[in-house]
């Protein structure tokens, strides 16, 4: 499946430029001429990355970016804002609105494609990390729930005065094995969370 890109720009000359550059790649491209059209299109189109002009009639790129960041469906979608303005305050405003990067016109083709490639890879990595986290949460819940029941019933059984020493030993071994499994589950979750943090730091340094 091809990666998807949404271009939001009110100037057709810019859209044609992006189409020309991206036509040499395997990216699937959709376009919107303003923020309102883009937000409507995002209800049915799920891009991996959005290329967005800052100054547009109606909603500005900053306003559109903030709206997108409020959509859980697009929480991992990467946004690159593009503007002719090189002012630092403008770039900072873009980051504050939720943009992942900010490029100034005229764009350099090689840098443009490199950024697209990096941010789409980052998006895929973040989605995979989230999937792992969800699976671990499910694994933890589905493992700990029966273990807690085993510990509870084993503890009650262990207090029975009619047990022989060998029967008590069997119960102790069962509880010990359960604790080993519980420790394994907790360590696995901890290691995965640490790996997630390390990956996030590495991605932030890209």
Write up what this structure looks like.
The protein has two domains: 4-107, Rossmann fold, CATH 3.40.50; 127-204. It is 62% helix and 12% strand. It has six helices and five strands; from the N terminus they run E-H-E-H-E-H-E-H-E-H-H. It has helices spanning 12-22, 35-41, 61-69, 88-97, 109-158, 165-204, and strands at residues 4-8, 28-32, 49-53, 78-83, 101-104. It has a five-stranded parallel β-sheet, with helices on both faces. Helix 2 packs parallel to helix 3 (61-69). The two termini are 25 Å apart. The model has no long low-confidence stretch (mean pLDDT 87). Its EC number is 2.7.13.3.
List key phrases describing it:
206 residues, Rossmann fold, 62% helix, alpha/beta, five-stranded parallel sheet, 2 domains
Detail the topology: elements first, then pairings:
Layout: E1 4-8, H1 12-22, E2 28-32, H2 35-41, E3 49-53, H3 61-69, E4 78-83, H4 88-97, E5 101-104, H5 109-158, H6 165-204
Parallel strand pairs: 1-2, 1-3, 3-4, 4-5
Helix pairs in contact: 2-3, 5-6
GO molecular function, one term: phosphorelay sensor kinase activity
Catalytic activity: ATP + protein L-histidine = ADP + protein N-phospho-L-histidine
Enzyme class: transferase
Task: Give, in order, the helices and strands.
Answer: EHEHEHEHEHH
The total number of structural domains is: 2
Write down the overall geometry.
rod-shaped
Q: In total, how many beta strands? A: 5
CATH architecture of the largest domain: 3-Layer(aba) Sandwich
CATH topology of the largest domain: Rossmann fold
**Amount of helix:** 55-70%
Q: Beta fraction of the residues? A: 5-15%
**Average pLDDT rating:** 87
Major β-sheet annotation: 5 strands, parallel
SS summary, helix count: 6
Main structural class: alpha/beta
Trace the largest sheet across and list its strands. 2-1-3-4-5
* CATH homologous superfamily identity of the largest domain: Response regulator
Name of the CATH class of the largest domain: Alpha Beta
Indicate the radius of gyration in whole angstroms: 26 Å
Query: Would you identify the regions where 5 or more consecutive residues have pLDDT less than 50?
Result: none
Termini gap: 25 Å
Organism: Candidatus Magnetoglobus multicellularis str. Araruama
InterPro entries: 2C_system_His_kinase (IPR050956), CheY-like_superfamily (IPR011006), HisK_dim/P_dom (IPR003661), HisK_dim/P_sf (IPR036097), Sig_transdc_resp-reg_receiver (IPR001789)
Protein name: histidine kinase
Enzyme class: transferase
